[in-house]
Amino acid sequence: MHLLIISLFLIVMSLNPMQESRESTTLRAVYTSDFDITGNGSAGNWEKAEWVLLPQRSFEGIKKETRVKILYSDKGIYFLFLCEDEKLTATMTEDNLDLWTEDVIEVFLWTDENYPLYFEYELSPLNYQLPLLIPNFDGRFLGWIPWHYVGDRVIRHETSVQGGSKEPHAAITSWTGEFFIPYAILEPLNNVPPKKGMKWRINMYRNDYDTGYSVWTWQPVDKSYHEFEKFGTLLFD
Q1: Global confidence as pTM
Q2: Helices (H) and strands (E) in the chain, counts
Q3: How many CB atoms lie within 10 A of CB 9?
Q4: Quick check: helix, strand or coil at residue 128?
Q5: Measured between alpha carbons, how far is residue 111 from residues 2, 189, 207 in Å?
C-alpha cells in the first residue's frame, strides 16, 4: 500500500526541499462530552480544542494550510481537519477504495508501542472512508478492513466544502473533514479505551493533487507514512 505515493513523495521532496523547523512531538487531547458530527465543526465542543498546524512538507503549485483539532470522550476520539484548497481532486464514490491516490486526510493511531500494530483512517472530501488495521513487521505491512462494521463500531464522518460545490473537480477555497472514531472499532488493541494521562502514538497526514502531489505531515517521515517509530505522542489530558 502507498507504493505509488512513496515514490511520488521522494520525487517531490527532491524537487521541493523545505527546511525543517523545531516542532512539538506531543499533542494534548482534551476531554469532552459526546456530540453530533456535522462536517463543518459547528459543535460548541470544538471551542475546547486548539488548532494544530500540519506542516506542508512538499508542494507543487502554491502553499496551502492544513489545521487539525482533537477531542476525546468516554466513547471515542474526534478529529476536525480544515484544508485550504483550490479544487477537489477526488472522484471515488465508494468506501474502501485507494483513497490516498486522490485528495485525502489521514490519521494513524498506535495505541501500544510493544506491538507493531496500528489503526489507519482515511477520509476523502467527498466523504468516503477507508478504515484499516495495519500489522507492520519490519516494513512489511498490509491493511485489514473491519469485520462486523455495524452498531457502535461504525465511524461517524462528514465533510463540507467552502467556496464551491462538493463534487469532483469543483473549484473551492477549502474543505473540512470531521470524524469520530469509537473505541469499539479499535478493540482488541491494548490501552483502549484510554484513561486520563495515558499516551498513544499518532501521526496525521494530508495529500493533495491539484497541480501535482503535495504532502502535509504532523511528524516528518522519510519514505512512507507507515514509519510508525517516527509518530508523535497523543496525551489524553
Answers
A1: 0.89
A2: 2, 14
A3: 22
A4: coil
A5: 22, 7, 24
Domain annotation for the chain: domains and CATH numbers = 3-15+39-103+116-129+139-236 (2.60.40.1190)
Name the grid cell of 206: 494530508
Cell of residue 174, nine digits:
477549502
Instruction: Report strand pairing: 129-137 vs 140-141.
Output: antiparallel
Contact call for residues 109 and 186 (beta carbons, < 8 A): yes
Q: What is the pLDDT of residues 95-126, one digit of tens each?
A: 999 999 999 999 999 999 999 999 999 999 99
Nearest-angstrom CA–CA distance, 67 and 49:
12
Give 11's contacts (C-beta < 8 A, 6+ positions apart): none
Strands 232-236 and 26-31: parallel
